[in-house]
Amino acid sequence: MVGEATEVEVRLSDQTKLFAQVIGKDPDTDLAVLKVTTDHPLPAARFGDSTGVKVGQWVLAVGNPFGLDRTVTLGVVSGIGRENINLSRYENFIQTDASINPGNSGGPLFNLRGDVIGINTAIINFAQGIGFAIPSNMATQVMNQLISKGKVVRAWLGVGLQPLTPDLANKFGVDENEGVLVNEVFERDPAALAGIKPGDVITKVDGALVDTPNKLSRLVAALDPGSTARVEVVRDSKRLTLNVALSERRDTVVAASLPQSKTDLKLGIDVQDLTAGLAEKFRLNESRGVLISKVEASSLAQAEGLREGDLIKEVNRVDTGTVGEFTVAVSKVKRGDTILLRVLREGRAFYVVLKPADR
Predict the structure, then answer these.
(1) Exposure string (b/e) for 201-239, b if CB count within 10 Å is 16 or more?
(2) What's the confidence (pLDDT) of residue 111?
(3) In the 8-state DSSP scheme, what is residue 185?
(4) pLDDT of residue 258
(5) What backbone phi and psi angles, to 5 degrees, belong to 330?
(6) CA torsion sign, 51 to 55 to 56 to 58?
(7) DSSP letter string over 306-335?
């Protein structure tokens, strides 16, 4: 771990010790680049193409587990494209059962040709044979930027995202896992300027399929700020292609997440008009909307993750600024139909589908 160090000691296999300068580090992928100065050439491993990695192929992990220098373990690739491990912002890990222990992090993952196809990064402590490596292509991209710029610059779209549940996919006229749902568009950011709207489902970026928020984040982050991306969206069951001029990523924005649908019960919420005092209490920078004042225990709303202080902004894609408008919108829902709500919570937006009981 480099941490805040600007200089570290590097020990080679022949016990030679060198001091290395930290050229740059990228917390989002947990990678850093070190530079050593020596009076003779040093051997170097080749970086391979991680796009060619296949599940089941043999790999070698090299590291320093528990202080045991130059330990080599053998295994296979157990999975590729692993994400939602909550280890870093951009996750696309190679999973392997080659033994990776504390001290292996930062070591290479080789294929049998001797090419580095990954950088070992983490294990799951409570499991056996489950380790993760950063793909070599991602590591190379980060390395090149750290060397040339001293930091990693990533492109920014400017949207809040959530995955598509079956209910949401049905509401927005797409297949499950076909794209990701835009629940928020930040003003004056690239997506807003290009015409992307809340409720759009992003399905492709520059022709590459998008099936999870993490995948979209990786695709956009791999592009250069200032470049233009072709973003395909589904809006009201129609497919559109928008050209988005990307800017540099901001570090302060966090994408919203959504609880998964669990049960089919009555709605179970009390609502009231938003007042200035309530907006301040619940940290809502809004002047209109329908505030949830109570969520009944064991209700559908509670099961879907709604809670007191949530602000309902839309019902079935119709703006609802008052309880009256909310009541009218809900009254139009036919028996057996679902209700799509757009909700704000502490400045972040998300969509949720409710299945009300028969009235």
Answers:
(1) bbbbbeeeebebbbbbbbbbbbbeeeeebebbbbbeeee
(2) 96
(3) E
(4) 34
(5) -70, -35
(6) positive
(7) --TT-EEEEETTEE--SHHHHHHHHHTPPT
Residue-level pLDDT at 343: 93
Residue 339 · residue 353 · CB < 8 Å:
yes
Indicate the pTM of the whole model: 0.64
Burial (CB count <10 Å: 0-12, 13-18, 19+), residue 50: buried
The string of pLDDT tens digits covering residues 304-356 is 899 989 999 999 888 888 888 888 888 788 777 889 999 998 878 999 998 77
CA distance 228 to 213: 20
Looking at per-residue confidence, does 296 or 85 come out higher? Answer: 296
Tell me what pLDDT residue 266 has. Answer: 60
List, in sequence order, every residue forming a beta bridge with 202; answer none if it has no partner.
180, 233
Of 243, 258, 245, 290, the closest CA to residue 160 belongs to: 258
Q: Tell me where in the chain the CATH 2.30.42.10 domain(s) lie.
A: 155-248, 269-354
For residue 137, CA distances in Å to 24, 49, 96, 133, 229 come to 18, 6, 17, 11, 21
CA dist., res. 186 & res. 243, Å (int): 17
What would the pLDDT profile of 161-179 be if each residue is shown by its tens digit? 888 988 898 889 888 778 9
In which residue ranges of the chain is CATH 2.40.10.10 found?
46-149
Class of domain 155-248: mainly beta
Show the CA angle centred on residue 161, arms to residues 139 and 119, nearest 5°: 15
H or E segment and range at residue 20: strand 17-26
Among candidate residues 103, 107, 110, the one with its CA nearest the CA of residue 119: 107
Q: Among 190, 192, 201, 254, which residue's Cα sits nearest to residue 224? A: 190
The candidate with the shortest Cα–Cα distance to 95, out of 66, 56, 62, 68, is 56
Superfamily the domain 269-354 falls into: PDZ domain (2.30.42.10)
Q: What secondary structure letter does DSSP report for 259? A: P
